[in-house]
């Protein structure tokens, strides 16, 4: 296996740093373990594991775990530099060329873009174990490595390049990897803003400029930004009206400050004199209205106009923050009423630049990039979703109805009576709440958040919040309750065709909920007033949850249920003459919908994308995809091009094959579902086995998020959040949510030839099997068996043997269906990446088991606790998409 030269170089630098700061003895011990583990894996030795770990004292253990974590991080960096999007069609130009080769014109692609919406939505779901400081140093190393690629020997500051890289690695070594305090929502907001500021804001205008060339015309701003951070309060009591206001204000401050910086540079650049160039009347008026009477700029209308625009925008900054911007305006201006008003002034400047010939001044450039940014981001930066659990909404509505004397026991009503009552309330202007009423804490908090939402619309524009996601949506009344609450703050306007700038978005998560989705949406569209409202908007969003459906039914049943629900929704929307907009709640791990976004979008059922898709980006995947401008550009372009291809390419299957394959998948999924439920929910003692064999309780101690690990105080698996469920199985290298049940479903299917034909011809099954391969390759039943030392409950060994047998069955079934002799045979780059890491993960697992055993036995040395947390961090880093 040929090692990536960057990995070899960075590994050497790390070794030098360890030797310098930890000493030769520690370095030699670490190097012995590393070499022994590498040799063991190269030789395929499956014998007894003895890597010399027992010779490490606790201090050396901490140094060892720290070193392996940093090596994995640097290896990730080196791999990311080799390129992100390698699939054919993974950029817009390639996608257009592919479509044209299939007889689909670029004019048709451009027409699709006119009504398209593609949005990555950043969430604060806690699977990123690394501190932001660690990620920042990592990104600085990436920037220095780019200089090294260019043949540079020195940095811009004059330091020797290799010495600068060594300095950053030394900073990594001496930076505390673990958080001492649990994150607050404000911390999560600031982390997301760093990505928006450093990656998204510079990258998006550049991408649109590239797409302009690819389309042969200026495309609309169909790729936009989204966030849940500060608005997602489902199970997180720390999200309040105050955090919502903080998130919105900081986002607005960030984007306006970016515009001010660009305006300042634009003013410096546009030194055009009216003595040498003609001036349009509109620009002359803008310059005259600016109030800039400086003699030095009397013949420089562009600079005078920009000074006035800057002064007005600076007033917006003051209104949002209560302070002057870092670079103060030279004179006072009146704040813009909206981002559109700001944009109109920029259009005047661009039009003037274009009016005096075709010298390229008005085509693109800095003014074009700024206009594009304002189109995409407005004064809000990213559209913030609200999210809350349907159970909360019904309790709040029940209290409001009771206090207003409308209905004494709303919760006792059946669905038909609830819906009828809510429709009556939504038909009139009467409000249920009144200022001097005293409500419970839950109702008070929810009303405060909605009041802040209404105020935000007035301050930042309606695009700041457009979607209200309803977790555990199970009925039409769940959607109507949200509109009743929005009506209380003046955002829902009654009428024959009601109007509301915020859309209620049902989130279907469990297998049963997914099966009911079409009936619920159909019943909602059957309500005349809401059909009219939805038709006026033109689209309706439905969110589908990968994580909870997986925890409920296993990987294979989850992905098939999501696929089938999406396909079944398409005709419901078509009959209603409404565009379907699916919102995919994906995580990083395969058990939570992880894997290639490009492949996943292209594998969506025909007729379900049509240019509109939103996808959550969370945890460690945010840094992996958007941590640098290069990776951000590649991943955003891959998302956009996949949407284009999935929307316009003809179906991969004939109608006959589609029906045949679907019937086969129904049978395979049913068998897989039975196997999964039989183990997880019907096996005596499984709950205790899970909590003992995985570090679930130790993960709960990690300070990586602002919300609790469970929605309730219950210890039932049903009530556990999907993130710690998946994350803990990954740590023990079992990765059960990503594959269990699939092997039984695949191997029990009688027509294996049909199964092979399906895998070869059907993007859905090909993507599903590729993800299965990846998770099987990252799991290790030999290492997992070491975690049995932590299991004390009766029957634990028998449960493990069931799991081990199922893993072998799944492994063999995947190879049989794909016709491969080994996992990832057709994905050599991924296979090499995983193989590189295995020698570094195995010793971490073994140390983790020993430290957990000691801690659970009552040892209270703080270094044991720190070592466990470090090992969790290191294993997650090495596995990459483990959460």
TrEMBL record:
Alphabetically sorted, this entry's keywords are: Carbon dioxide fixation, Lyase, Magnesium, Pyruvate
Q: Which PROSITE patterns match?
A: PEPCASE_1, PEPCASE_2
Q: What class of enzyme is it?
A: lyase
- Active-site residues are 125, 551
Q: Reaction(s) catalyzed by this protein?
A: oxaloacetate + phosphate = phosphoenolpyruvate + hydrogencarbonate
InterPro entries noted in UniProt: PEP_COase (IPR021135), PEP_COase_bac/pln-type (IPR022805), PEP_COase_Lys_AS (IPR018129), PEPCASE_His_AS (IPR033129), Pyrv/PenolPyrv_kinase-like_dom (IPR015813)
Annotated GO CC locations: cytosol
* Signal peptide (residue range): none
List its EC numbers: 4.1.1.31
Q: What cofactor does this protein call for? A: Mg(2+)
Name the protein family: Belongs to the PEPCase type 1 family.
Explain the purpose of this protein.
Answer: Forms oxaloacetate, a four-carbon dicarboxylic acid source for the tricarboxylic acid cycle.
Q: Quaternary arrangement and interactors, per the entry?
A: Homotetramer.
Protein's name in the database: Phosphoenolpyruvate carboxylase
Source species = Terricaulis silvestris
């Amino acid at each position: 296996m040929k090692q990536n030269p960057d990995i070899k170089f960075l590994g050497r630098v790390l070794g030098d740093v360890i030797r310098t700061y930890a000493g030769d003895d520690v370095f030699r011990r670490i190097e012995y373990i590393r070499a022994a583990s590498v040799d063991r894996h190269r030789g395929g030795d499956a014998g007894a594991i003895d890597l010399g770990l027992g010779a490490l004292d606790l201090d050396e253990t901490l140094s060892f775990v720290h070193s392996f974590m940093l090596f994995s991080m640097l290896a990730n960096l080196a791999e990311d530099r080799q390129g992100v999007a390698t699939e054919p069609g993974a950029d817009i130009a390639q996608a257009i060329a592919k479509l044209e080769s299939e007889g689909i014109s670029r004019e048709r692609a451009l027409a699709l873009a006119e009504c398209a919406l593609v949005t990555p939505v950043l969430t604060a779901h806690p699977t990123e174990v690394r501190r932001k400081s660690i990620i920042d140093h990592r990104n600085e190393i990436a920037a220095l490595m780019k200089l090294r690629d260019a043949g540079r020997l020195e940095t811009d500051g004059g330091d020797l390049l290799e010495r600068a890289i060594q300095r950053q690695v030394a900073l990594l070594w001496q930076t505390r990897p673990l958080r001492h305090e649990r994150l607050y929502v404000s911390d999560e907001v600031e982390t997301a803003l760093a990505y928006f500021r450093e990656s998204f804001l510079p990258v998006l205008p550049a991408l649109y400029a590239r797409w302009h060339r690819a389309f042969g015309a200026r495309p609309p701003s169909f790729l936009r930004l989204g966030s849940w951070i500060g608005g997602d309060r489902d199970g997180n009591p720390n999200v309040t009206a105050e955090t919502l206001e903080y998130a919105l204000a900081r986002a607005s401050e960030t984007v306006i400050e970016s515009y001010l910086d660009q305006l300042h540079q634009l003013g410096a650049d546009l030194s055009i004199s009216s003595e040498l160039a003609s001036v349009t009347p509109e620009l002359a008026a803008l310059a005259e209205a600016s109030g800039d009477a400086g003699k030095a700029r009397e013949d420089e209308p562009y600079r005078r106009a920009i000074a006035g625009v800057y002064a007005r925008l600076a007033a917006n900054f003051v209104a949002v923050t209560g302070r002057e911007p870092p670079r103060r305006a030279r004179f006072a201006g009146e704040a813009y009423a909206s981002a559109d008003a700001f944009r109109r002034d920029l259009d005047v400047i661009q039009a003037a630049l274009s009016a005096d010939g075709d010298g390229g001044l008005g085509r693109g450039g800095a003014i074009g990039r700024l206009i594009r940014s304002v189109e995409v981001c407005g004064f809000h930066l990213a559209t913030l979703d609200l999210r809350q659990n349907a159970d909360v909404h019904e309790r709040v509505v029940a209290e409001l109805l009771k206090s207003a004397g409308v209905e004494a026991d709303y919760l006792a009503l059946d669905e038909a009576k609830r819906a009828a009552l809510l429709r009556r309330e939504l038909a009139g202007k009467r409000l249920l709440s009144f200022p001097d009423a005293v409500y419970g804490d839950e109702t008070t908090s929810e009303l405060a958040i909605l009041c802040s939402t209404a105020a935000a619309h007035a301050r930042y524009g309606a695009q700041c919040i457009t979607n209200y996601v309803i977790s555990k949506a199970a009925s039409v009344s769940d959607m109507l309750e949200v509109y009743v609450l929005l009506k209380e703050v003046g955002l829902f306007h009654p009428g024959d065709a009601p109007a509301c700038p915020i859309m209620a978005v049902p989130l279907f998560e469990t297998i049963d909920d997914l099966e009911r989705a079409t009936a619920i949406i159909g019943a909602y569209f059957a309500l005349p007033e809401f059909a009219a409202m939805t038709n006026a908007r033109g689209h309706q969003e439905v969110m589908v949850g990968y994580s909870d459906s997986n925890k409920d039914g296993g990987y294979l049943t989850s992905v098939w249920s999501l696929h089938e629900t999406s396909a079944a929704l398409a005709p419901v929307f078509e009959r209603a003459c409404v565009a379907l907009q699916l919102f995919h709640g994906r995580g990083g791990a395969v058990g939570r919908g992880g894997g290639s976004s490009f492949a996943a979008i292209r594998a969506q059922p025909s007729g379900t994308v049509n240019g509109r898709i939103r996808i959550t980006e969370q945890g460690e995947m945010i840094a992996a995809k958007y941590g640098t401008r290069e990776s951000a550009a590649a991943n955003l372009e891959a998302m956009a091009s996949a949407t284009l291809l999935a929307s316009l390419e003809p179906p991969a299957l004939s109608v006959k094959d589609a029906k045949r394959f679907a019937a086969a998948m129904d049978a395979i999924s049913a068998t897989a579902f039975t196997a999964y439920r039989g183990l997880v929910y019907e096996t005596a003692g499984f709950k205790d086995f899970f909590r003992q064999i995985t570090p679930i309780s130790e993960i709960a101690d990690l300070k990586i998020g602002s919300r609790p690990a469970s929605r309730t105080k219950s210890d039932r698996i049903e009530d556990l959040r999907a993130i710690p469920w998946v994350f803990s199985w990954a740590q023990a290298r079992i990765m059960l949510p990503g594959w269990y049940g699939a092997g039984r479903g695949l191997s029990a299917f009688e027509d294996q030839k049909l199964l092979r034909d399906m895998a070869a011809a059907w993007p859905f099954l090909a993507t599903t099997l590729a993800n299965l391969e990846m998770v099987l390759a990252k799991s290790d039943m030999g290492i997992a068996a070491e975690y049995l030392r932590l299991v004390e409950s009766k029957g634990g060994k028998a449960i493990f043997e069931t799991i081990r047998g199922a893993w072998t069955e799944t492994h063999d079934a995947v190879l049989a269906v794909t016709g491969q002799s080994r996992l990832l045979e057709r994905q050599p780059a991924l296979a090499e990446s995983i193989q590189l890491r295995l020698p570094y993960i195995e010793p971490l697992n073994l140390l983790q088991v020993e430290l957990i055993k000691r801690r659970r036995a009552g040892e209270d040395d703080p270094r044991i606790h720190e070592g466990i947390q470090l090992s969790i961090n290191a294993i997650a880093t090495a596995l990459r998409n483990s959460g």
